[in-house]
Write a structure and sequence with these properties.
This protein is an alpha+beta fold and about 280 residues long. Helices cover about 50% and strands about 20% of the residues. The strands form 3 sheets. Strands 7, 8, 9 and 10 form a 4-stranded antiparallel beta sheet that branches.
Amino acid sequence: MERKAFRLNGFLVLAVLIVLGGLAAAVGLGRGEAMTAVLAIAWAVVAAVVLTGFTVINPNEAKVVQFLGRYVGSIADAGFQWVLPFTSKRKITLRVRNFETAKLKVNDADGNPVEIAAVVVYKVVETARATFSVDDYEEYVAIQSEAAVRHLATTHPYDSHEPDRTSLREGAEVATELTTELRDRTELAGVEVLEARITHLAYAPEIAQAMLVRQQAAQVVAARTRIVEGAVGMVQLALDKLAAEGVVDLDEERKAQMVSNLLVVLCGDRATQPVVNTGSLYA
């Protein structure tokens, strides 16, 4: 659908028009006042028609040219240009644009209400589609962006504890998925989405406190699990080291007592008070 419109350098056309005016004046002066008047009127009519074709194209800008309602083509070459006379020219910016969606309140895949917003970076790549396929491509992109963000939020949980399940907090994967979906949605309008990323993500106020408590509990459990794993490894290393170097020979009961004492020291969240045994080990 997109095609280039016929164009000429505007300065060249203007120069030709001035030269024709000079020739008309020279011929008219040589053939009398009547001929001069006729040629002046003819040149004025031609000039009036030609002047309707001049247009200025700014950098990173294009103009969609229509002649009596028919799409003629698009011009994206910056400078002073001339196109067919009596054509309408609609300006379309080709600059990279961005906007941030409103904070949307939706339920995630687990049914928890969350607040989410995203920033979308895009540009027009097909001026004909942006002009004729939709009423307003900016509004179209904004609405489709909100729809894509809502769909993304409903298909992923806010936080996932399963390794094969993507959560909304995984920025890179979520951004790629959102960008791909938006590209499919906005292709009809001649728009290319360059990037889309989540800028705001939080639980809704009514459940934020409860979810904070749950997150804190999960972090405490994860931390305790890591501490226990490390403590068991250290106890095993200590027992193996003592046995390998023959420092002391412990029976199973004393080993169990040592393990208990070491785990209390290593896993406790408070400083321990050592007790020195000055008697027999088996007293």
